[in-house]
Amino acid sequence: MTAYFGSCLCGSAKFEVQGEFDSFYLCHCQHCQKDTGSAHAANLFSQSAKVTWLSGSDSVTTFTLPGTRHSKSFCKVCGSALPGTHGEGLLVIPAGCLDTEVSMLPTAHIFTSSKAVWDTGSESLPKFEGLPD
C-alpha cells in the first residue's frame, strides 16, 4: 500500500495518507476559485485511502457551504487547505499540501463552464524560476 505524507504551511498539522488515488481533478467551479484565490483547485480523490493525523488534528477545521456539497478542510492557524472527507467516505486531498511527490497527473478539468475568463493562454507567458526583478 502506498503512503503519502503532507502538512500545512505552518507545520501545525501533519498527516499520512495510506492508499491509492482514484482521480486527480482540476476544479474550476466558483467555490474552488474562492477557496484557493486562484483559477482552480487541484484535488486528489479516493474512495479507499485513509488519512491519519500525525500531529495537529486539533488545528484542522472544516467549512461546508450551506445548501451545497462543497466543503473545505483547512488549518485554523495558517489557513492551508488540508484533506477532508466528503459525503460517503470520499477522501479529498488538496495536491499542494502533500510533501510526498505524486506521480499521478491530473485526470481532467471539471466545472469548466465556470472557468475564470483570465485563465487562458498561460503557456505563452514568460517564465521565471523565482520572483522577477
Summarize the structure.
With 133 residues, this protein is mainly β.
Account of the protein in words:
GO terms for molecular function: carbon-sulfur lyase activity; metal ion binding. Belongs to the Gfa family. This protein has 133 residues and is mainly beta. It has one domain (3-115): Metal Binding Protein, Guanine Nucleotide Exchange Factor, Chain A, CATH 2.170.150.70. Helix content is 5%, strand content 38%. The protein has one helix and eleven strands, in the order βββαββββββββ. The chain has one helix spanning 30-36, and strands at 3-7, 14-18, 23-27, 41-46, 50-55, 60-64, 71-75, 81-82, 84-86, 90-94, 108-110. The strands form three sheets. The protein has a five-stranded mixed beta sheet. The chain has a three-stranded antiparallel beta sheet with strand order 1-2-5, with no helix packed on it. Strands 6-7-8 form a three-stranded antiparallel beta sheet, with no helix packed on it. A hairpin with a 6-residue loop joins strand 1 (3-7) and strand 2 (14-18). The mean pLDDT is 93.
Strand order of the largest sheet: 9-10-4-3-11
Total strands: 11
CATH architecture: Beta Complex
Question: How many individual domains?
Answer: 1
Shape summary: globular
Give the SSE map.
Layout (H helix, E strand, L loop, with lengths): L2 E5 L6 E5 L4 E5 L2 H7 L4 E6 L3 E6 L4 E5 L6 E5 L5 E2 L1 E3 L3 E5 L13 E3 L23
Parallel strand pairs: 3-11
Antiparallel strand pairs: 1-2, 2-5, 3-4, 4-10, 6-7, 7-8, 9-10
Structure keywords:
single chain; 133 residues; mainly beta; Metal Binding Protein, Guanine Nucleotide Exchange Factor, Chain A; 5-stranded mixed β-sheet; 3-stranded antiparallel β-sheet; 1 helix; 11 strands
